[in-house]
Request: fold
Amino acid sequence: MENKILTKKGLNKLKKELEDLKHKKRPEIAERIRQAKELGDLSENAEYHQAKDEQSFIEGRVLELEHLIKTCEIAEENTNNDEVGVGSKVTVSKDGATLNLTIVGSTEADPSNGRISLESPIGEALLGKKVGDEVEVELPAGVNKYRVVNIE
Reply:
């Protein structure tokens, strides 16, 4: 398994989620399980089974986050507004419309909010580009052309 690339902000967000799971969610689930056990027959106790399922999910996520935090690579965030890098806020134009994108690590990506992974076809194509550069990106819907308008 290759190491994931994260921004410092993304790493801090994962650390916060891990702390929340360990110190808030775990105790809440443990209490729900304890209360469900007091209701008697566990074989037909839906609350108990639901809490155990949630506990399994939380424990899996804790392991995933611990591994990710331990093995991730922190990307040097781009402080140079001359070219696109990790952390750059990029304005691109496509067919007369403008898009505002932020280049982030894959675990931080949220395309619906303009946060695209540096490993995505568009993110990969934009890395290292300067204002005025054009890129062609092959996507499932076909080839799209983007022109870099601004870099922050």
Observations:
- Strands lie at 5-6, 73-74, 89-94, 97-104, 115-117, 134-139, 142-151.
